[in-house]
Write a structure and sequence with these properties.
single chain; about 110 residues
Length: about 110
């Protein structure tokens, strides 16, 4: 599937839930391409901004949308990688802060 197709498909579903794609479409499509690359590599769309192990069970917390997205968007207006944002974030009504990593170190691979 093409990134633009995924974009259009997910946009409708996620906006109903209150999550929006980053208004910078170049960034958004780049992240979607990385998700598709990870799907080809691992068999699932792991977060493109985190190192996946290749084991879906180990990585279930970082399969996009990751489990950290809810709190990230609530607190910062953006998820860790900046793919999903709040409407206020996109409209520049809240500061664009760096979102800290919430994934526990014990789940990370090095």
């Amino acid at each position: 599937m093409e990134p633009e197709t995924i974009y259009e498909m997910l946009k409708k579903v996620q906006e109903l839930k209150g999550y929006y794609f980053n208004k910078d479409k170049e960034i958004t499509l780049g992240l979607i391409e990385a998700l598709l690359f990870n799907k080809e590599r691992y068999g699932y769309m792991s977060c493109p901004c985190r190192l996946a192990s290749g084991n879906r069970t180990n990585d279930k917390d970082i399969v996009c949308p990751c489990v950290y997205r809810i709190k990230d968007v609530e607190e910062y207006g953006s998820c860790y990688c900046g793919l999903y944002v709040s409407k206020e974030w996109n409209e520049g009504l809240i500061e664009h802060e760096r979102v800290p990593e919430r994934r526990p170190v014990s789940r990370m691979i090095f």
